[in-house]
Every structure is written in C-alpha cells, then in structure tokens.
Design a protein that fits this description.
- This protein has 279 residues and is mainly α.
- Helix content is 74%, strand content 0%.
- The protein folds into two domains: 1-37; 67-277, MetI-like fold, CATH 1.10.3720.
- Keywords: Cell membrane, Membrane, Transmembrane, Transmembrane helix, Transport.
- It is found in: Cell membrane.
Length: 279
C-alpha cells in the first residue's frame, strides 16, 4: 500500500512539473497574441491583463502599411532554396559515404563531423569580405550559402546513420535486377529516408527562417531583408513605439515555423530515432 501511495505522489509531482514547464513555455506566446489584439491605449495601461476589447487594427496596419509581406517572401525564398540544397547534398553525400567503398571514406566523414565544431561567428568577417569583392551582398545567395554550409555536417551525419540502417542486400538485389546506382538511390533508397528528410527540413526551416546573424551581417538593403531582420523596422516605425503593431508583426512572422513544426512533429520524432539502433 505504501509503495502505491509513493507511486501516486511521484506521478502527481511529475505531472505538476510538466504542467509548470508547459505554462512557462506557452505563456509568452499566449501573452504575445493577447497583446497583439489589444488597442494601443489598453496595452499601455494594462499590458498583462486580459483584453477588454479585441481589435485586429494592429494586424491591418502591419499588413497594409508595413513591408512584412516582402520580408516574409524573402525569408521563404532563402528557406526554400536552402532546404532543397541541404536535402539534395546531404542525401547524396550520405548515400555515397554509407554505401560506396572508398579509401578516403572515413576521412571525408570526419571532415563533415569537424564542420559541426566550427563557430558561425568566426566566418562572418571572411564571408563579408568575400561577398563584398564578389558583389553579392544584399542578395538571397549571400544568405543561402552559409546556411547550406553550416547545415550540411549534421544533415550528412543523419543521412549516413539512416543509410547504415538500410540492408546492403536490398541494394545488391536491385543491382542484380539491372538498376544503376543513380536509379537505386532515386527509386529505392531515398524514398525510405522520408522521416529523415522531414526531420532535417522541419529543423532547418525553423532555424533558417529565424536567422538573424547572417541577415544582419550581409543585408542592408530594405528590399532584401528577411523577416527576422525586418521586425526591427516595426519598433518605432509609426512615430512613438507602437507595441501593438510590433507584437502583431511578430505573431505573423512566427506562424509559418509553428505550423510547420506542429504539422511535421510526428515524422520529426520518428526521424530522430530512426537508425539509432541497427539489427
């Protein structure tokens, strides 16, 4: 009886801890949404209270008067191109390292793993100088290149981990049937890596969408700004700091990554665990 009581108490404490953790995590987003639908006067007098009246004027002001649409398009363009390159290069490189025999396979894999340890900050000045001389500052390419470069090490490791899980007998049977390596990859191996692809896509789509450090370093033209950098324009963009419009702009900017994460959460969990064990 005493053990049962202790189990129940432990379970209650665990549930209470989880609930507190969830409240801490969710409260800022809930408060941000409530603040975005408050009139400016009410927001300045009672910022933490529930809204007495709900208005969508802040959203209308941001969408009609600001450049949030342009910023989101730039972010979408950079994110989409980066993800395509990350998945294509990561999938093909991981397949080659996992299934092809080569004398330098271990050295190449070690090179990619070493890339995880390179801090982003030490590359900013060299990249800025290179972009300036090449004339590609204030372009989407200046953001795509470092995003792909820093994402490839982990992406290659995840794909290699999954491809090691795929039995060699499956590939050998396809070769016997007359398939070449390219066709085997496209029609057999790559479709099996769906969970890994979705995991990488969802993880890096959020990171690239929210990137500020590269955009702040390489972008100064308003027409090339991404949404993370463009949010600075809404602070004080309407004379005095219009916090209602600022919060509305933040809500609009975080909706796409939130939708992506919750829509793909099931496959993300499966992709992170796939290939963890082999046998």
């Amino acid at each position: 009886m005493e053990k049962i009581v202790k189990k129940r108490i432990g379970k209650i404490i665990f549930i209470a801890f989880i609930l507190i953790f969830l409240i801490i995590q969710i409260y800022p987003v809930v408060w941000l949404f409530m603040a975005s639908v408050k009139p400016t006067v009410e927001l300045s007098t009672s910022p933490f209270a529930l809204p007495k009246s709900i208005t969508f004027e802040n959203f209308i002001k941001v969408l009609s008067g600001g450049k949030i649409g342009l910023y989101m398009w730039n972010s979408l363009k950079v994110t989409g191109i980066s993800l395509l390159l990350i998945i294509f290069l990561g999938a093909t490189t991981g397949y080659a390292l996992s299934k092809f025999k080569s004398r330098f396979k271990k050295q190449i894999y070690a090179f990619f793993t070493f890339g995880i340890m390179v801090p982003v900050q030490i590359t900013l000045i060299p990249l800025f100088i290179f972009y300036s001389r090449a004339g590609i500052l204030n372009t989407s390419f200046s953001l795509v290149l470092p995003q792909v470069g820093f994402a490839l090490p982990l992406s290659v490791m995840m794909f290699v981990s999954f491809y090691n899980f795929v039995p060699d007998e499956l590939i050998e049977a396809a070769i016997v049937d007359g398939c070449n390596p390219g066709r085997i990859f496209v029609t057999i191996v790559f479709p099996l890596a769906r969970n890994t692809v979705i995991t990488i896509a969802s993880m890096y789509s959020i990171l690239i969408w929210n990137d500020f450090i590269f955009a702040n370093t390489f972008i100064s033209d308003t027409n090339a700004k991404t949404v993370a950098m463009g949010l600075k324009d809404f602070v004080g963009a309407f004379g005095n700091v219009d916090w209602g419009s600022t919060f509305a702009a933040i809500i609009i900017s975080i909706l796409p990554p939130m939708i992506i994460y919750f829509a793909l959460n099931k496959w993300v969990t499966a992709g992170m665990t796939m290939g963890a064990t082999k046998g």
